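Re: the multi-chain job from yesterday

Posting the exact lines I submitted so nobody has to dig through the queue logs.
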Amino acid sequence: MSREGTTGRRRSARRIVVTGMGAVTVVGDSPSRFYESLLAGRSGITRWKRADRMSGCASRIGGDLSDFDLAGHLRGLGFPGGEDLGKRCLTVMRAAPRVTKLVAAAALQAHADANSLRGVPPERTAHVLAGHNLNAGYVVENALVFHRDEPDYIEPLFGLLCLDTDVLSTTSELLDLRGPSFTVGGACASGNLAVLAALDLLRAGRADAAVVSGAPIELEPVSLHGWSLIEAITTRSFNDDPARASRPFDARREGFVPSEGAGALILETLEGASGRGARIHGEILGGSATSDASHLTRPDREGQIRAMREAMDDAGIEAAEVDYVNAHATSTPMGDAVEVAAIEAALGPRARRIPVNATKSMIGHCLSAAGVLEIIATLLQTVHGRIHPTINLDHPDPELDLDFVAEGPRAASIGVAISNSFGFGGLNSSVVVGRFRE
Amino acid sequence: MTRSEIFAVVRSNIHGIVEETQNLEITEEMSMRDLGADSLQIVEVVSRSMKDLRLKVPRTDLMGAANLKDLVDLFERAAARPGPAPGK
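And the result, structure tokens for all chains:
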């Protein structure tokens, strides 16, 4: 692997590796169950489970974790981090909104996977949380109580628990994380942007390890209806067949499928991880973020190309070294087409020789958690050498001509992969992930 | 609503919110501070109890309550007044 990119920018001397992963998704509530479902081509998209709550909303389907039960989850996984931590979790989050519980569940898994970061001082452990406007559902429900019932009957701790930072700090409290902690907001690019922020912290020596939490946005009818009005989400053709709704690169795609899910990664310096004998899942070789100077939803090919090229430069790799792309691929008509064109331009002839798949075809679009979950999917595929399919590609869009892995899972040796995430408001990001080599 | 019904609601919220009180016998002479509640837990017990009982007591009155007896007194007086209508 080369150490310099196409613009000659030298890769950072400090290597950053992933030593922990956690996931709670509609197709599996741990990384291994998540990956097993992805390989099986299993969709987690259903009709909204609480139809009464969604009354009047044009959206009928999505990835719904409204029945997530933290106590059951912790028991099911054998209390990651220990039974005492599990019990403390239930006490601390007794009245917390669902998002806080989902994030903590994913972070606990990742932390336990990283051997509880044993040997890393809490003061040297950062926490970066991806996402914003996370508790929209909680806010809406309390607004209804305020206006329709009695202002004093809103949730007693609303003033604290409605904040995104409470989601961050609850997990920091549980895991005793005392380094730099903050949220990173970038719409649907939040996950990748949070990974990049953690990468920068670790490269700069501001921390030795970082928990990166990808937080879901609690889906509620007002936001969903708003997205339907701007025709961003699917509302028409697949309400009676939800598992078929998320269909990136297919001719019948009609909008993204909103979904809930949380992911978490533990990033560490290679030096620190090796020193404490941690198991290494892979390396974050580099990444980049660009923007389009536009507040609208329209994706921009040039901004996406720049993100991928700069990410490769930052990672010190050439396009010819990329073995796989985990596409942002939300199943919108324009978004998928622009991204395919951008991948073709950024990778040149290499684009047609490598697999490009869409995790969202099965889990839907997990919004601010998407980037983290898709990096986890990328790492798992890299470690196990098996690529998951893109499902629902029944009638491939003839204009989109890459290898989307439509036929089923496939064995592949992946040394270097790119994971893309793009957000409303012209926010583009790409992260380069590598199989770990000494 | 009887005084004992009001106290049962308050006690149940204390048991649910303040750690390590589940097996304690709670009497009206106790204060929530005695039971180990922090300031946010006190707010939560009082607010949830008011909502459960469909009462409303001004915050300034609540600040004068030194123990659970004072709190139940306030709730009892409020219960005797017309309260917020359900789903106003």
